[in-house]
Write a sequence for this structure.
């Protein structure tokens, strides 16, 4: 049944990952030279400066986030197969951790590209994989609860 609470959590997870792709993750501003560097899920955007010379494949963040959103959306419609849902939830856990790790790694590379003594600021979208992890864990918890309910009903028959 699609109206279960875990379906809501999975839908919110997919929306979080899609919004991560659209919003900036990290931003750094050099007050003296007025140079700005912003990291999105697809790459670095430089203002008032030449493009940063990092050969980092930042688009990997977008690929991981979109894969996580796709897995969550597919997981919603696997409501008849709870074990498959749990396996997809574990896969999504790995994708979310990889997304967060890639965002952190590439933001550290951006730190070195512009005035290393100044610190950049993480934008709210940087924390969306953490929210996604919590939503994924809640969805898995309720999927397990449904499975236990079905098993207890089978024992009574």
């Amino acid at each position: 049944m699609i109206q279960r609470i875990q379906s809501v959590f999975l839908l919110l997870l997919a929306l979080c990952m899609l919004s991560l792709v659209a919003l900036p993750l990290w931003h750094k501003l050099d007050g003296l030279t007025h140079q700005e560097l912003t990291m999105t899920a697809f790459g670095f955007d430089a203002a008032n400066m030449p493009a940063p010379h990092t050969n980092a494949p930042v688009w990997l963040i977008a690929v991981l986030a979109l894969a996580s959103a796709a897995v969550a959306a597919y997981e919603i419609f696997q409501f008849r197969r709870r074990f498959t849902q749990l396996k997809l939830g574990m896969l999504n856990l790995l994708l979310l951790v990889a997304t967060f790790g890639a965002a952190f790694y590439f933001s550290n590379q951006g730190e070195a590209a512009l005035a290393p003594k100044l610190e950049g600021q993480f934008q709210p979208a940087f924390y969306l994989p953490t929210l996604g992890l919590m939503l994924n864990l809640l969805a898995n918890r309720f999927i397990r609860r449904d499975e236990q309910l079905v098993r207890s009903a089978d024992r009574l028959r």
In short: The chain has a mean pLDDT of 87. The radius of gyration is 19 Å. Residues 9 and 97 are 17 Å apart (CA to CA). The first helix runs from residue 5 to 22.
